Amino acid sequence: MRNSAEQQHRVNRAMNFARANLSTDLNLTTLADVACLSKHHFARVFETRFQETPSKFVSRARLELAARKLVFMRNTSITQIALECGFSGSDTFSRSFRARFGCTPRTFRTKDRLVLDSIYQNNSLSLQIQRTCVDISYQEVIGFKVLIERRHE
């Protein structure tokens, strides 16, 4: 590899590919191929740059996408959201979701109903969802919709 800027570009390309294809099978080989790096080198560079493995990144991105869909696509079933986000089924999704957010997807969606109804009525751009283990902020920042998570210890 010639320089770290080129490595960064390649790793970023794989990361963008992963975000755009969360519903597909994203394994280390696929992401390394997108980055045009060997599996081992890609994994090493990725973990050095982002302090998490590629598989943990994909898992986290899938769960964050699912959380957004649970909040904003209230008429879509939880199983459908799980499948759209790349989980093999609702059981796997529920276990992963509970481990990440501290509650089931159904509880997550139900607890937010009053907050969301208020947001929809007021046409607000900012949303705060508070939980015992995590705060989630949804904001529009310079034309981009951003989901921010803060964990409580």
Brief characterization of the structure:
The chain is built from 8 helices and 3 strands. It is of the alpha+beta class and 153 residues long. Helix 1 (4-20) crosses helix 2 (28-35) and helix 2 (28-35) packs across helix 3 (39-50).
Describe this entry's structure for a reader:
The protein has 153 residues and is an alpha+beta fold. Helix content is 60%, strand content 14%. It contains eight helices and three strands. It has a three-stranded antiparallel beta sheet. Strand 1 and strand 2 form a beta hairpin. Helix 1 packs across helix 2. The longest helix is centred in the middle third of the chain and has 19 residues, at 54-72. It is elongated and about 50 Å long. It starts with a helix and ends with a strand. The model is unreliable at 114-133 (pLDDT under 50).
Radius of gyration: 17 Å
Question: How many DSSP helices?
Answer: 8
Oligomer: single chain
Strand content: 5-15%
Structural class: alpha+beta
Q: SSE string, helix = H, strand = E?
A: HHHHHHHHEEE
**Share in helix:** 55-70%
Strand order of the largest sheet: 1-2-3
Query: What's the main sheet like?
Result: 3 strands, antiparallel
> Globular, elongated, flat, extended or rod-shaped: what is the shape?
elongated
Number of strands: 3
Note poorly predicted spans.
Answer: 114-133
Q: What is the average of the pLDDT values?
A: 78
* N-to-C CA distance: 40 Å
